[in-house]
Design goal:
The complex is a heterodimer of chains A (366) and B (235). With 366 residues, chain A is an alpha/beta fold. Chain A has helices at 47-54, 77-82, 99-103, 105-109, 114-127, 144-156, 174-191, 202-208, 227-232, 237-243, 247-254, 274-284, 328-337, 358-365, and strands spanning 5-14, 24-32, 36-40, 62-67, 70-71, 84-88, 162-166, 194-199, 211-216, 220-225, 267-269, 288-293, 296-302, 321-322, 343-346, 352-356. Chain A folds into two domains: 5-255, Rossmann fold (3-Layer(aba) Sandwich), CATH 3.40.50.300; 258-365, CBS-domain, CATH 3.10.580.10. Chain A is elongated and about 80 Å long. The two termini of chain A are 24 Å apart. Chain B is mainly alpha-helical and 235 residues long. Chain B has one domain (2-228): MetI-like fold, CATH 1.10.3720.10. Chain B is 76% helix and 0% strand. Chain B is built from eleven helices and no strands. The relative contact order of chain B is 0.17. At the A-B interface, helix 2, helix 4 and helix 6 of A face helix 7 and helix 8 of B.
Chain lengths: 366, 235
């Protein structure tokens, strides 16, 4: 681990009064600064308990928790929490406060002056993608997705280095959830927080986590590793089972077109003669060819319809065009939907970067 | 009878003087207001604390049931000799004590329920952001409980204003006075006129506290909340 450790759990146990077993069992965990760590597991695996022990909403029965090298119980609990953002599933927005009032909660607790608070609130509303005209509305007038964005803005208000998120997206519908997840990743590229996120959804954990921590019932650590590593090499039958079906596709979702080497493909220049095009198709064992002019890929044409030299106006546009940022999973989806069985890679400048076939994709995950 | 009532109401003598309607209304409002205020001062602080700790649900239920069984007139009769012994006079204090007892339960129950019922996620978020317990109560639970609390005060206020009339029976001069007088004098127009004034005052109280409640909680756009924990009382 290259980054310094933000949160360290050492031999942390939690036993609830009256419970037979442990909720969290001698957990050792290091959470690196600036990374998203996703805690995931079935009900009763202690993931939420673990999260709440970090901001001491739940006190551990034994073991130590250090935050930036200092024991979590060194500070008075309210001061510790003011330095840690907290986002929860049901948002927990204050119904009697406007959006602005909700976001300003921690700055007010910290005694910031009005101008500074107002400025920060507006900055945050922009950051999480809300309209400024929403500042004076009450939470009950917002949609679920908007409420969740306000919850994130409120947690980030005093710019805490650490953000704890307890199943932040499980109360919103799948479409909004996917968008909020993308927004979080986008946000994280700008704010670089240490984020600990609890979820019961393994796909969410794999998508969001730089590292994924898989816990089993009774608070037992099964595996803690980057998502690609977990998918490639599950540490136990439990992990393999928990990851579910379609492991290959899940791995493809983590890789991007830029991670593999596309093939130039059977591409002819405008003006090439029919013989050279036939040789090109034979070499690539295809019955079609791409048409390029001045570095731009115009489209493709069946070899059988070629008459004389290659002309620009014979080009049929490619159905599947991807960018280097496209995941291999959606590239693959495009490939199976295209007549030519390739995905054409075009970069942000419109430049042709090659073609991806199923062969290159399966090479990439090997 | 309606003509008699109108005649009574349009006679200037009915309005002014020691037994005039102006003076009687002022006495009525004064006693009602004092009883309501006392009930709020007595009920709200313990209700908020118990609600914050989620303790005392049983106490709340008991209090409501007990208060329903308690006839206000019996309370007046019971306090009367005590008040007399303590040299506090006959009219005001016995009625005041009975009205405070009448006003307590709705205020207490609604304040308690309001805080007890605040969404657990909201309270957890407040703690998680670093509020001290006192800040959780002051900044989150009490404001969030305000619609219910205001509704409880409103219910009590209306009951108190209507029931203050009973004070006349132990010698307190208020809007009950013309009713009793009217019965004694067989002047039913007077009885009707006084009853209408009491009813109007009750409605006015209801409207005023309703408006105050909406003013205090502009965010509560859900009118059904007001009836949620309101308690019905027999007077």
């Amino acid at each position: 681990m290259s980054q310094p450790v933000a949160i360290r759990l050492e031999q942390v146990c939690k036993r609830y009064p009256g419970a037979a077993g442990l909720a969290v069992d001698h957990l050792d965990l290091e959470i690196p600064t600036g990374e998203i760590v996703a805690l995931v597991g079935p009900s009763g695996c202690g993931k939420t308990t673990t999260l709440k022990m970090i901001n001491r909403l739940i006190e551990p029965t034994s073991g130590t928790i250090e935050i930036h090298g200092r024991p979590a119980d060194e500070l008075p609990v309210h001061e510790l929490r003011r330095g840690i953002g907290y986002v929860i599933q049901q948002t927990g927005l204050f119904p009697h406060k406007t959006v602005a009032g909700n976001i300003a909660t921690v700055p007010r607790l910290l005694g910031w002056d009005k101008a500074r608070t107002r400025e920060r609130v507006e900055e945050l509303v922009d950051l999480v993608g809300l309209e400024r005209q929403m500042l004076d509305r009450y939470p009950s007038a917002l949609s679920g997705g908007q409420q969740q964005r306000v919850g994130v803005a409120r947690a980030l208000a005093a710019d805490p280095p650490i953000l704890l998120m307890d199943e932040p997206y499980s109360a919103v519908d799948p479409i909004v959830r996917a968008r909020l997840q993308d927004e979080l990743l986008d946000l994280q590229r700008r704010v670089h927080k240490t984020i600990v996120l609890v979820t019961h959804d393994v796909d969410e954990a794999l998508k969001l986590g730089d590292r994924v921590v898989i816990l089993n019932v009774g608070g037992v650590l099964e595996q803690a590793a980057p998502p690609a590593e977990i998918l490639a090499d599950p540490a136990s039958p439990f992990v393999a089972d928990f990851l579910g079906e379609e492991l290959g596709l899940k791995r493809l979702a983590l890789l991007r077109v830029r991670d593999i080497t596309p093939d130039t493909g059977p591409v002819a220049e405008v003006g090439d003669d029919a013989d050279s095009v036939r040789a090109l198709m034979q070499e690539h064992r295809v019955t079609w060819f791409g048409i390029r002019e001045h570095g731009r890929l115009l489209g493709w044409q069946w070899g059988s319809t070629l008459d004389g030299e290659v002309r620009a106006d014979g080009a049929e546009p490619f159905r599947t065009v991807v960018s280097p940022d496209t995941t291999l999973r959606s590239a693959l989806d495009g490939i199976v939907n295209s007549l030519t069985n390739v995905a054409v890679v075009i970069d942000d400048d419109g430049e042709y970067r090659g073609m991806v076939r199923i062969e290159e994709i399966s090479e990439g995950v090997r | 009878m309606i003509e008699d009532a109108l005649a009574y109401l349009t006679d200037a003598d009915s309005w002014w003087g020691r037994n005039g309607l102006v003076n009687l209304t002022w006495n009525h409002v004064r006693l009602s207001g004092a009883a309501l205020l006392a009930a709020i001062v007595l009920a709200v602080p313990p209700a908020l604390l118990l609600g914050h700790r989620h303790r005392g649900g049983l106490l709340t239920v008991t209090l409501v049931n007990l208060s329903r069984a308690l006839p206000t007139f019996a309370v007046i009769a019971f306090v009367l000799p005590v008040s007399y012994q303590l040299d506090l006079g006959l009219g005001f204090w016995p009625t005041f004590v009975a009205l405070v007892l009448l006003a307590l339960p709705p205020v207490f129950v609604n304040a308690y329920t309001g805080v007890d019922d605040v969404d657990a996620a909201v309270v957890e978020a407040a703690r998680g952001m670093g509020m001290r317990e006192s800040e959780v109560l002051r900044r989150v639970e009490v404001p969030a409980a305000m619609p219910l609390l205001a509704a409880g005060v409103r219910v009590s206020a209306v009951q108190v204003v209507a029931t203050t009339t009973l004070g006349t029976l132990v010698g307190y001069r208020c809007l009950g006075t013309p009713i009793i007088q009217g019965i004694a004098e067989r002047d039913y127009g007077k009885v009707l006129a006084a009853a209408v004034i009491v009813a109007a005052l009750s409605l006015l109280t209801d409207a005023a506290f309703g408006a105050l409640g909406r003013r205090l909680t502009p965010w509560a756009d859900n009118p059904t909340i007001e009836t949620k924990a309101s308690v019905q009382h027999a007077t």
